[in-house]
């Protein structure tokens, strides 16, 4: 059976090496912790359909998978992304590196990209180096959303993707984001196309809720 969805959003996972990016992707897609984390270089990929505010949204997620070690994540990786998870490890010193990654994302990605700062390994409270407060301050200064997660326990992993998707959807609905603009990282799915067609055939305006 083919999947039907209203929108497709392209997401990226960026951040420091070893922060748990691959594990977050795996936990989100498979609902379990990835034990054998190998460091194969190349982009890993996953997709999942989620329900956001009554709309079904297919998230197509790309993981840098090792490229971040060489600081060579390229413009083409960032191209056409609607959302990004900027991941750091709460048990290691982070700020300089995250600032660099954040700058890369801001210069290489679409200006409309929605970024969520993600402090992973929340389960390792005893080894914490980055306080919730300093990270939320950084998020606030840069107008990022922010959550702490654990790819190990699964805490907040799905919520992170949903929060980012919800923000994109709100921007589409308010007109701030245009899905039809080149490189928006957003596509209409079959479900919205069918709805649009029906509305056009019956002569109603596409945004008419009657
Ligand atoms: N305790 C704990 N360990 C984690 C968590 N997420 C990832 N790890 C571990 O951190 C290491 C790096 O994870 P990985 O996903 O490969 O990081 P990546 O380089 O950012 O893709 C691995 O040994 C994982 O088992 C987490 O939430 N909690
Ligand atoms: Mg990885």
TrEMBL record:
Source taxon at top rank: Eukaryota
Keyword Protease: no
Alphabetized Gene3D superfamilies for the sequence: P-loop containing nucleotide triphosphate hydrolases
Nucleotide-binding recorded as keyword: yes
Residues annotated as transmembrane: 7-29, 77-98
GO cellular component, one term: membrane
NCBIfam families, per database record: small_GTP (TIGR00231)
Similarity field: Belongs to the small GTPase superfamily. Rab family.
Name this polypeptide is given: Ras-related protein Rab-4B
Organism: Lingula anatina
Lineage, opening ranks: Eukaryota, Metazoa, Spiralia, Lophotrochozoa, Brachiopoda
């Amino acid at each position: 059976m083919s999947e039907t969805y209203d929108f497709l959003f392209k997401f990226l996972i960026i951040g420091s090496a070893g922060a748990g990016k691959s594990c977050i992707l795996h936990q989100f897609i498979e609902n379990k912790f990835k034990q054998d984390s190998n460091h194969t270089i190349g982009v890993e990929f996953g997709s999942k359909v989620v329900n956001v505010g009554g709309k079904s949204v297919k998230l197509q997620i790309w993981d840098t998978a090792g490229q971040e070690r060489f600081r060579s994540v390229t413009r083409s990786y960032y191209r056409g992304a609607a959302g990004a998870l900027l991941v750091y490890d709460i048990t290691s010193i982070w700020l300089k590196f995250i600032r660099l990654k954040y700058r890369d994302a801001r210069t290489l990605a679409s200006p409309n990209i929605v970024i969520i700062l993600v402090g992973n390994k929340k389960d390792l409270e005893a080894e914490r180096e980055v306080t919730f407060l300093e990270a939320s301050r950084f998020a606030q200064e840069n107008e990022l959303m922010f959550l702490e997660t654990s790819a190990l326990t699964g805490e907040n992993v799905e919520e992170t993707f949903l929060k980012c998707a919800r923000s994109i959807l709100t921007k589409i609905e308010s007109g701030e984001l245009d899905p039809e603009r080149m490189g928006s990282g957003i596509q209409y799915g079959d479900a919205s196309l069918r709805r649009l067609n029906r509305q056009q055939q019956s002569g109603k305006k596409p945004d008419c809720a009657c």
